[in-house]
Amino acid sequence: MTRSLVVWDESLLAYDLGEHPLDPVRVRLTMALANAYHLLERPGVTVRKPAAATDEELGLVHRADYIAAVKAAPDDFFFQGFGLNTSDNPVFDGMHEASALIAGATLTAARAVWAGEQDRAVNIAGGLHHAMPARASGFCVYNDPAIAIADLLAKGAERIAYVDIDVHHGDGVQTAFYDDPRVLTISLHETPIALFPGTGFPEETGGPNAEGSAVNVALPPGTNDRDWLRAFHAVVPGLLRAFQPQVLFTQCGADPHRLDPLADLRLSVDGQRAAYHALRDLAEELCGGRWIATGGGGYALVEAVPRAWTHLLATITGDQLDPATLIPREWIDLAESLCPERVAPQRMTDDGDVRYVPWVPEAEPTPLDRAILATRKAVFPLHGLDPYDPRD
């Protein structure tokens, strides 16, 4: 029986930027839907409340002057600097406490897996992957994935793989470990030519002492389930097998969904479900099942995010949910009462087509195939792999 930890408490909803796309209702509705299917009551599942990360733990990634600024900014209406008090990162009462709690929740998840207490662990409220050592960015104050990874390195981890499937480049995590060969960061995202944060080109492959430790798949706008899965399977499994990680850490932003208002990929919840399945299988194959997951972005607050992350929770805690499962009436009523301008879905599927054709070099490549080959040419030789051999 797989042992799974869900780090959860309603206090995690306090990370609330106000009238803002990153609305904590997406997390509330996810947990309500997961509870409607009794996912947290499955055999082998533990639910644990988080404790806030300490300043010392935050300091594994963030500068002391930045942490001090996060604490001070809510009390100064005219505060400027460190990326705070902007439209992307407005300040709010209790900002430090709420942000430190999310970081602490991801630390709890990571430590439980690394210690062998749990096989898998998830913090749905986490995944704030844009925050930099001394700057808030992209709705993110403290970078909980980077903090948790740094903590595992301090505990003796030698090879950690981080796979980021958010529609935006996982720039903060890449920056934190760009010169560290112990961490392999892989990000699949919409091309930075079209989307924030403007980084994540295939040529970003790691610093002078860690060549090949950063991997970026820059996907063309309009990429659908079949093409996204084609790209994933053309890049991720081969690199993970070459790297042989001890633990897999994933950021599972739900914003590649076709209804997401802030980006232009075209995945369905079925494609996202297939991605979670693939990540689980890779963790089983390569890491003895050790898998740490977080949420991330996602702005189709009712239509997509709760279903995607409920599929993630189902995958973490045991058997996947049947995509044809009907959504309970009480959840639909809750969603429409909290977000009356939105229409709640009726089933756990979008009837997406997840049958993909495995990648091979094409004589007349599509834009997607050119993106795949650009990544493979940039990184695969640094791992001893042939960029033109689809078996690698």
Plain-language structure description:
Belongs to the histone deacetylase family. Residues 20-315 form the Histone deacetylase domain. This protein is an alpha/beta fold. It has one domain: 3-Layer(aba) Sandwich (Arginase, Chain A), CATH 3.40.800. It contains eleven helices and eight strands. An eight-stranded parallel beta sheet has the order 2-1-3-8-7-4-5-6, sandwiched between helices.
How do the helices and strands line up, and which of them pair or pack?
Layout: E1 4-7, H1 25-36, E2 45-48, H2 55-58, H3 64-72, H4 95-114, E3 120-123, H5 144-154, E4 160-164, H6 171-176, E5 183-190, E6 214-219, H7 225-243, E7 247-251, H8 269-286, E8 291-294, H9 305-317, H10 329-338, H11 367-379
Parallel strand pairs: 1-2, 1-3, 3-8, 4-5, 4-7, 5-6, 7-8
Helix pairs in contact: 1-9, 1-10, 4-5, 7-8, 7-11, 8-9
Summary of the model, kept short:
By secondary structure, this protein is of the alpha/beta class.
The best one-word shape is globular
| Average residue pLDDT | 98
Strand order, sheet with most strands: 2-1-3-8-7-4-5-6
Number of helices: 11
- Give the amount of beta strand, in percent: 5-15%
Predict the CATH topology: Arginase, Chain A
At the first level of CATH, what is the class?
Alpha Beta
Q: SSE order, as H and E?
A: EHEHHHEHEHEEHEHEHHH
What is the percent of helical residues?
Answer: 25-40%
Q: What is the total tally of β strands?
A: 8
User: How is the biggest beta sheet arranged?
Assistant: 8 strands, parallel
Mind telling me the CATH superfamily name? Answer: Histone deacetylase domain
Distance between the termini: 32 Å
Class derived from helix and strand content: alpha/beta
- Low-pLDDT segments: none
Gyration radius (Cα, Å) is 19 Å
